[in-house]
Structures are given as structure tokens and as C-alpha cells.
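Um, can you check?
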Amino acid sequence: MIKRGRSGRGGPAEDVFAARKRKPVPHEFVLDALAPLGPETRPMFGCLAVYVEDKIVLILRDKPAPAQDNGVWLATTEEHHAALRPEFPSMRSIEVLGSGVTGWQVLPADAPDFEEAALRACALIEAGDPRIGKVPGERRKRGEAAVKKAAVKKAAAKKAAVKKAPAKKAPAKKAAVTSAAKSGGKATAKRRS
């Protein structure tokens, strides 16, 4: 029996084991330039993230829309933008990440100096420049965040309940014993009789 694929078409048994066609690597020359560092790549946001050791350093993007954000995304922070701008005059914030200045910056593929700028970024990464690269925060296991959120919510509710509860008054009997202790035991003597 021949198994049908997702398309519903039948075909030779070999088609079941055929390798999937991979997307081409965008701006592959960047990976070639970083090859001495042994970079790792992972898919991210429909793009290709590039890691060197424990840092994410770049994202390579070549998608149909929006085309203005295609190119090499630099993992940097806002504090380094001014220092990087002289080296990368075409560098700008990534528009798909929202308006305003973003930590990530793009070397646009449509810039006249794109390849030169991308190779310059690779040279900085190879030299260990601290302006490019971020160590991603540890990701929580799925569900762990919900458990922590529930615990915080429960603690806040308990604290609010303690504030709202009226102060308990001591019963009258205890008040008499307490006042008797202060007066030298006269109230205790009255109880015995």
C-alpha cells in the first residue's frame, strides 16, 4: 500500500523517504566569513539566527515582505549605536520590530555597501568586539512561568486579606485575668470564692 502525503497524491514509495528541499541560506557569504569561529545557526522568525559560542550575533534575513528589513541584523544594544554608526553608515533600526529605536540594527541588503558592511561586522565579531552579540536569557520551561505567576498572585491575595481583616479583641475573661495580674492578684481571689 502506498502512503499518501499531505497533498493527497499517491506516488512511488521512494517519495515517502525523499529529503525535503531546504530553503537557501540568506547571505551565505556571512557564514563563510565566520567559519573559523564555528558558528551555529537556528531558525528564528522565519530567518536564520547565527550564534558564536553562547552569544547570538546576527540574524540573516531575506524574505519577500517587508523587503526593507532584509539584510544582516546585528545583535547589539542602544548604548553601542553611536560607536557603531561610523563603521556602518547605512545601519538603522529594524522596522518590523516597531517604531522607534531598537536594540537590534540592520545592515540593509539594498544598501550600496551591504557586502562590505556585513564582512566588516564579521571581522568585528571575529575580533571579539563587545558591541556585537548578546547572551540570550535562559528560557523558562513551559508552564513554569504560569506556576510562578499563580504563586505571586496567591501571595498578594493573602497579604491583602491580612490587611483587610479587623484586629481581634481579647475576650473579656482574658482581660480580667490580665488586669488581675497587674493589680496583684485581686481578680484571681474573687474568682476562687
Observations:
- Residues 49 and 59 are 4 Å apart (CA to CA).
- The chain is about 35% helix and 15% strand.
